[in-house]
Amino acid sequence: MEIETRHLRLVKAVADEGSITRAASVLGMTQPALTRQLRRVEDNLGGPLFERSRTGVAQTPLGRLVLGRANAVLSVIDSLRTDVADGPLPAQVRIGVRFGNALVGLMRGLRSTLPSTEIVTDSETRIDGLIDLVNSGRLDFAVIHEFVGHEIRLDSRLIARPVGCEPAFVLMAVDHPLSGRDELELAELAAERWLLSPLDMDREADCMTRICYEAGFSPKISHYLGDGLAVELIRAGEAIALSTPTNRDSGMVIKPLVGSPMRVRRLLLTGQDNPFVEHLDKLARFTADVLTETLERQPTYSAWRARYGALPSGPRFPL
User: Fold this and answer.
1) Of 100, 182, 246, 268, which is the most buried if we count CB atoms within 10 A?
2) Distance from C-alpha of 244 to C-alpha of 208, rounded to nearest angstrom
3) Pairwise CA distance, residues 71 & 48, whole Å
4) Phi first, then psi: what are they for 184, rounded to 5°?
5) Full-model pTM
């Protein structure tokens, strides 16, 4: 007798139910028919798979071995049937990410989960632009950021998974008068010239205005610039900026703010109808792991975390 899929399902049902009677009921068989079939399987495999007792059945060592193989085979077969029923996955998975560490995490997850699928990246830097691309189906996944207290309203067709939350530190020139301090009060920076992200990129300006108001001053925002020009001005001492704790550019230092008044949450997005949606949670774990690894390699952040602990991603406010 050749071992077939139905025999493996029979063995699995007996193991899952712990009873010949209950397994027969689940499989729609009579108890005698199931018992005969099980004996034929055991004879073919060279020994008993279960020890019978008045209270049910228990797996023998051979039974545990066979069940392990059966579960693996049935998982592949069931997955194949689902894939065939749903149609083949697209040959490409399209992603959009602003920050390199999130890109690395997402790509690692995709290569582990979908090794034969080509990864195509998009360079859109605006958060609203990334959301629109996911919402329209032109991107399969995107990693975005939002400021806690200024959450982004997402379309109900989108699914989001938090992959990290971090405090915003202050980025300044290495020879800035306050660069030797371990931690800064936001109010100490009231006279500084600030540099923020372009207004169409994210909600940093809204969040910055709020936290400075709560600290008792109105910020002097002199520049709205992207990464390249921003770095040059900060390094030259022309401005300071808020930054993720991962920054390690030479000529600049990052300093924590007392109380962490600005916090940045990162989200992995996809659409409910996206063909890759079933992989969202696994990809979120890969992305979160790389973001955490990157933060832990930054000495200033590591010292801050040792003192205060990591920020939980936390639930988003209902919007």
Assistant:
1) 268
2) 14
3) 18
4) -125, 145
5) 0.70
Give the pLDDT of residue 319. Answer: 41
Cβ atoms 243, 171 nearer than 8 A: yes
Q: Is the pLDDT at 13 greater than 60, yes or no?
A: yes
Q: Is residue 200 part of a domain?
A: yes
CATH number of 14's domain: 1.10.10.10
pLDDT in tens, 238-291: 999 999 887 777 789 999 999 999 999 999 999 998 989 999 999 999 999 999
Residue numbers of the domain that contains 243: 169-261
Cα–Cα distance for residue pair 109/132, rounded to 1 Å: 23
Helix (H) or strand (E) holding 61: helix 61-86
Q: Identify whether residues 155 and 275 lie together within a single domain.
A: yes
Is residue 211 domain-shared with residue 230, that is, in the same domain?
A: yes
DSSP the chain: ----HHHHHHHHHHHHHTSHHHHHHHHT--HHHHHHHHHHHHHHHTS-SEEEETTEEEE-HHHHHHHHHHHHHHHHHHHHHHHHHH-PPPSEEEEEESSHHHHHHHHHHHHHH-TTSEEEEE----HHHHHHHHHTTS-SEEEEEEETTBPPP--TTEEEEEEEEEEPEEEEETTSTTTT-SSB-GGGGTTSEEEE--TTT-SHHHHHHHHHHHTTS--EEEEE--HHHHHHHHHTTS-EEEE-TT---TTEEEEPBTT---EEEEEEEEETT-TTGGGHHHHHHHHHHHHHHHHHT-HHHHHHHHHH-PPP--PPPP-
Pair 73, 113 in one domain: no
Percent of the chain with pLDDT over 90: 50
pLDDT tens per residue, range 132-177 = 999 999 999 999 999 998 899 888 889 999 999 999 999 999 999 9
C-alpha–C-alpha distance, residues 256 and 254, integer Å: 7
The encoded tokens of residue 60 equal: 């023998």
